[in-house]
């Protein structure tokens, strides 16, 4: 069997590699020639533990080949980004472009699957587009939506072991998609229709966003009330039916901070909690900036000199190098603009070099800083001794003080 993966990003490439490893011949397609070149050389262009070795193996034994153009296959997978536009409207243009690129290659009996997170109704729309341009294939294709659920950093395990939801346009399409995924997924493949599968992906990430917003709201309340939010949550979670998540400096990444807008854009009157959660999680980053600005002013008044501020962490969550939609990056940028009176040291231990931020070693920055701003709970930060001569703004619960 031959499968064509449209998009070799954080999800498309690992999925293509795992499928190749399970005996499927893969054509991996990306519009970026650099990604294609690297992939064909067996070099992974993303960071994911265990994946570089697997890529080398499947490229060298000819199971995976990358190209800038799709090639004739039996199954086609759309795994391209679905960002949002300025007004938080979902942008499905990459899914449409990838679909248009494979339409001339489709033949009777082929499987077409969308994996990209998509607004409800996208699979139906793409099916309409396909049949408009290829009326000869009406009722002769299998079309499904099957979202991914993997957590960056644990992708090899989760791609194989997570349960998945498979939503076909009809029962035969669901069967065909399940037949494909069961070649490498050991988790249960749950059957549904494509609309429910689309909404399920959005629901999973919106649910997490709402739960994090609750923790962030508690952190704002506790700050005013003079209560340690970390202790509060730990105690509340001792209740057998309470399980509150952790507050932080905001919500980042390309999923949880984005996907809820795919619901609020289409169902604005019905999605009040989802919309408010987004507002709270966005506001948390502004609040952190204000806290740093106030700490700087206080320091200047007390010491009659400008402080050295260490901004600890830029990634969107602990122990990764991914800075996409990272609130820590946003906060650092704002602090650099508004605290231009201070010496600002920027730390991100998972990134070697950055074209915008001049990075400093985390121990050096901590030692030099008057004000330490803990933005991301990276493991190395946890071994820094608490120094009560410094002003420590712990937004991510390193010290939980
Ligand atoms: N965060 C908190 N407090 C918490 C947990 C997370 O502030 O208690 C923050 C993180 O610091 C980060 C953001 O939330 O900024 C998102 O991190 P995450 O670990 O919750 O999720 P992602 O974006 O890495 O991956 C999510 C996962 N979805 C769910 O857990 C429902 C993953 O399974 C999905 O595959 C992925 O989105 C995706 O691709 O959609």
From TrEMBL:
Q: Which gene encodes it?
A: wecC
UniProt keyword NAD present = yes
Query: Which residues does the UniProt record annotate as the domain UDP-glucose/GDP-mannose dehydrogenase C-terminal?
Result: 310-401
What Gene Ontology terms for biological process does this UniProt record contain?
polysaccharide biosynthetic process
What top-level class of enzyme does the UniProt entry assign? oxidoreductase
Q: Which domain of life is it from?
A: Bacteria
- Write out the entry's keywords from A to Z: NAD, Oxidoreductase
Q: Which family does it belong to?
A: Belongs to the UDP-glucose/GDP-mannose dehydrogenase family.
Coiled-coil residue spans? none
Lineage, top ranks: Bacteria, Pseudomonadati, Bacteroidota, Bacteroidia, Bacteroidales
Instruction: Tell me the protein's name.
Output: UDP-N-acetyl-D-mannosamine dehydrogenase
Q: What organism, scientifically named, is this protein from?
A: Jilunia laotingensis
A single Gene Ontology molecular function, please?
NAD binding
Q: Which InterPro entries match?
A: 6-PGluconate_DH-like_C_sf, NAD(P)-bd_dom_sf, UDP-Glc/GDP-Man, UDP-Glc/GDP-Man_DH_C, UDP-Glc/GDP-Man_DH_C_sf, UDP-Glc/GDP-Man_DH_dimer, UDP-Glc/GDP-Man_DH_N, UDP_ManNAc/GlcNAc_DH
- The EC number on file is 1.1.1.336
- Spell out the Pfam families in the cross-references: UDPG_MGDP_dh, UDPG_MGDP_dh_C, UDPG_MGDP_dh_N
